[in-house]
Amino acid sequence: MDLPYIWFLIVGFFFIGYFVLDGFDFGVGMSLPFLGKDNTDRRVLINTIGPVWDMNETWLIVAGAAMFAAFPEWYASMFSGFYLILLLILITLILRGVSFEYRHQNKGLAWTDKFDWMIVIGSAVPAFLWGVAFANLIQGVAMDADHNYIGGFFALLNPYALLGGLTTLTLFFTHGVIFVSLKTTDDMRLRAQALARRAGAVTILVAASFLGWTVLQHLDVAHAWLIMTLAVLAAVSLIAAWLFNAVGREGKAFAAMAVTIVLAVATILAALFPNVMPASNVPANGLTIESASSTPYTLNLMTWLAAIALPLILAYQAWTYWVFRKRITRSTIAASSH
């Protein structure tokens, strides 16, 4: 396989890692109004992701850096064309990070409530907008001969893209709530399982609609069978996650949700292939994997660096999750502690 195609898979791998890991972070953040009966409950929820949320976000930085180095034209076209969407994602991610650090300054409930809502907003907005962005990539956008996006901001908010946003929003919410049930005990665990049952049912309907629409849009491509297979497997895995949660097997439910997100993003990448940014107006104006890639020398050097660094990154992240594997309880969250 040629290096541009290998790096398309590597960039896809980084985005998959980001959506799986930061996805449950988003879900936990969005669950605060539903599962946080009091400040101690909200502390429990935040502490389930406290040791890992910032590490999970680094996958986005690595994905963006890999895209910039391996596919500079894709990076330039996407980040300029989707500027407002990506700016909103960046601002809300910053607000969420600041809120994690500032909410525990012991300045009263009004202080913590404001930062808690910033966490909710900083989780929900990126969760929705990432789906909007990637749905537009699949569908294609209007581009000129220089590969510049020529549509407006509201053109990106088309029905298919909005459904994509609802899909990622509900997927991440359910993923996060199941993670809460995996990391907590007693009443919080039971309430999280009940919420995951309700949210999961909605997620199945929304995600099935989006994946079905995606398959229908690509029935005429040579690898339609692959897109359809990945979409069906994603749907089966999502239903399995819902069933595992329903019988109280949160570990298997969380694993099935992670597999669902992997397969859903793989469906998106398969639908995008061999393009990286198709043009909806004039197909020749779009970017393909080969036309958007860097020089062979650059890709070769990056491949050697990735072969050395990636195993170390994966090992460190696995070790971190192992260290912080224990469940969080209300008794471990003292009234005056973070």
Automatic annotation (TrEMBL):
<feature type="transmembrane region" description="Helical">
    <location>
        <begin position="253"/>
        <end position="273"/>
    </location>
</feature>
<keyword id="KW-0249">Electron transport</keyword>
<keyword id="KW-0479">Metal-binding</keyword>
<feature type="transmembrane region" description="Helical">
    <location>
        <begin position="301"/>
        <end position="324"/>
    </location>
</feature>
<dbReference type="GO" id="GO:0046872">
    <property type="term" value="F:metal ion binding"/>
</dbReference>
<feature type="transmembrane region" description="Helical">
    <location>
        <begin position="222"/>
        <end position="244"/>
    </location>
</feature>
<protein>
    <submittedName>
        <fullName>Cytochrome d ubiquinol oxidase subunit II</fullName>
        <ecNumber>1.10.3.-</ecNumber>
    </submittedName>
</protein>
<keyword id="KW-0812">Transmembrane</keyword>
<dbReference type="GO" id="GO:0070069">
    <property type="term" value="C:cytochrome complex"/>
</dbReference>
<dbReference type="GO" id="GO:0016682">
    <property type="term" value="F:oxidoreductase activity, acting on diphenols and related substances as donors, oxygen as acceptor"/>
</dbReference>
<feature type="transmembrane region" description="Helical">
    <location>
        <begin position="6"/>
        <end position="32"/>
    </location>
</feature>
<feature type="transmembrane region" description="Helical">
    <location>
        <begin position="159"/>
        <end position="182"/>
    </location>
</feature>
<keyword id="KW-0560">Oxidoreductase</keyword>
<dbReference type="GO" id="GO:0009055">
    <property type="term" value="F:electron transfer activity"/>
</dbReference>
<dbReference type="GO" id="GO:0019646">
    <property type="term" value="P:aerobic electron transport chain"/>
</dbReference>
<keyword id="KW-1133">Transmembrane helix</keyword>
<keyword id="KW-0408">Iron</keyword>
<feature type="transmembrane region" description="Helical">
    <location>
        <begin position="74"/>
        <end position="95"/>
    </location>
</feature>
<keyword id="KW-0349">Heme</keyword>
<keyword id="KW-0472">Membrane</keyword>
<keyword id="KW-0813">Transport</keyword>
<dbReference type="InterPro" id="IPR003317">
    <property type="entry name" value="Cyt-d_oxidase_su2"/>
</dbReference>
<feature type="transmembrane region" description="Helical">
    <location>
        <begin position="194"/>
        <end position="216"/>
    </location>
</feature>
<comment type="similarity">
    <text>Belongs to the cytochrome ubiquinol oxidase subunit 2 family.</text>
</comment>
<feature type="transmembrane region" description="Helical">
    <location>
        <begin position="115"/>
        <end position="139"/>
    </location>
</feature>
<dbReference type="GO" id="GO:0005886">
    <property type="term" value="C:plasma membrane"/>
</dbReference>
<keyword id="KW-1003">Cell membrane</keyword>
<dbReference type="Pfam" id="PF02322">
    <property type="entry name" value="Cyt_bd_oxida_II"/>
</dbReference>
